[in-house]
Amino acid sequence: MQVFHRSTNVLSRFTIFGGLFVVAGLVYGLYLVNSSPYVTQQGVAKEQPIQFSHKHHAGELGIDCRYCHTTVEKLAYAGMPATKTCMNCHSQIWTNSEFLEPVRRSWRTDESIEWTKVYDLPQYVYFNHSIHVNKGVGCETCHGRVDLMNVLWQKPTMQMQWCLDCHRQPEKYLRPRQFIFSMDYQPPSDQLDLGRKLKEEYDVHTRVTCSACHR
Amino acid sequence: MSVETGREYYGVSQVPPEIIGPGQTFETVTDRISQVVLTRETPKGWFIGLGIALMLLMVFIMSVSMLLAYGTGIWGLNIPVGWAFDIVNFVWWVGIAHAGTLISAILLLLRQKWRTSINRFAEAMTLFAVSCAGLYPLMHLGRPWLAYWLLPYPNTMGMWPNFRSPLLFDVFAVSTYASVSFLFWFTGLIPDLATLRDRSQNFFGRTIYGILALGWRGSARHWERYETAYLLLAGLSTPLVVSVHTIVSFDFAVSVIPGWHATIFPPYFVAGAIFSGFAMVVTLSIPIRKYYDLEDFITLKHLDNMARVMLATGLIVAYGYMMEAFMGWYSGNTYERYMVYARIFGHFAPAYWALILCNIIIPQMLWFKKVRANLAALWVISLVVNVGMWLERYVIVVTSLSRDFLPSSWFRFVPTFWDWSTFIGTMGLFLTLLFLFIRVLPMISIFEMRTLVPGAELKEELHEAPEASR
User: Fold this and answer.
1) Across the interface, do B211 and A2 touch by the CB < 8 Å criterion?
2) Rounded to the nearest 5 degrees, what angle is found at the Cα of A93, between the Cα atoms of A89 and A97?
3) Which pTM value belongs to this model?
4) What domain range includes position B435?
5) Do both A123 and A177 map to the same domain?
6) Domain tally for chain A?
7) Which of A42, B122, B305, B313 is the most exposed place for a label (fewest CB within 10 A)?
8) If you measure CA to CA, which chain B residue comes closest to A164?
9) Residue B225 CA to its chain's centroid (Å)
10) Tell me, what's the pLDDT at B153?
């Protein structure tokens, strides 16, 4: 007496071949989830303790990046402005604005404003702003059109393949040093030629060894 | 070899070295083998054996849990000895696995009929040994949950594994080996699973074996496809016998560490693998044939043949040791010469001389047919060879690393409790799988054994006249 009828053979054949597609599909599905904004936080606007608008300050008023992020050319860390930096202007203008109350409180109590990090790099990655800025990588290349963002969001995926895209072929993204801080720079149509020239001039190397970033 | 010449060879007083006992018919073969799984009461010894195996498995689970909780620091290895018990045991287990594939694939292609009764459990042994072996590199990673990084898969890092590294070849070699061995074993099981399905007394058995038998009805078309598939898989497995341990040896030989950087490594590793694999098959088959009354199926002829394979591969291994020492001296390289000296006279000398004793001197007793026919002696020798082959890997891996180029960084490796418990634990895993296999699957291929029954032989002789004289 047999438990299984002959027709179940179709089922087993289907299972064998179907299994392969299911496994392949699962792997690809995981890849999609891992590259989605749900995991990477790409394009997700972050709420901040103060309703600060980069669009207003950097775009409409045209304040230079370095006015607030003072150490970007010299240190690994670009630098967050001290409350004093805010108060340079806001002790004179918008002094009664409700939006600025947290700044004034910080000024009174001597307690730092706790901003929410938008570009949060894992601890096992070494990153240095100054070397990038000094070798022809513009702010906008990684951070996007900050001058058009009211609330800041992360432009790239910040995944390793994104880092390596430039580290393997820096000429794709290099720009002349005088345009590092300009937001509306348009790369020329012969970017690769220009990039190769700048690579030579600024002594830029491809850096793809593990220990370049994982020190 | 016919019965007559076998008798002459052994002398009339001893058991005739046939590959199947006298008086067996199709019925008795099927009954004898399938009853172990289906009807016969499970012997007490099996429960005791499984109990011990499970206890050792607990040791393994405990050791792995400790490893995951505290990291590889619980082991005795440290730079420069970055590879120690984990790699020694990996190579040892992979080596043991080789006998199964050799028996099933190469001996099938060479039409060595005596393989029939031992191939099933030798293949099972291969699978279980590879499972044990495969766990070691994963544990060695330190962060086993990232083991999938070893595979080339679409990832967000924009990286491939390093295809130029033998360590990556190893990933492919061992995983291919495991999957092909599994397919080969399972394909060979299908007709027997159908037999178990048909003979099973209860619904549970009929369902499980029914699913596993994949709708086998034993029609001519099924058999024709089966034969083709089995031969193809044998062809696929054959290069694997040589390639897997060759690539394992590349892990060492491609590096520039003195004592590792030698061209003799691939053939010498492969011979060592077959040597230890056959030793393990002998170690397991002697008690199994006794406890399950399978002396008619696994006969003295089988054990004799396996002992001869051990002797031959053991001699190749001995040649390997000689060449290793000779090349160390002949290279004229200070470091190579020192490594030979350190192994033979250094503080690892006891391990070195023990391995020479176990792998070269004691197996020489297999030249004598009386020793080969003495089960107790054969069993002890097979155990000694297992130990010797483990020592060989220990000497290769640990001595070379602990005495590298800079005397200031020399390090004396001392295994910790967790080194030993992990090793003994994998034996528990191996034995647990083996005991379960013996209980739920036919440990000898039923349908292939039936082709050895005298009745089946006759038909074949009628069809293939030239072979009748064999």
Assistant:
1) no
2) 115
3) 0.86
4) 25-143+180-456
5) yes
6) 3
7) A42
8) B158
9) 28
10) 86
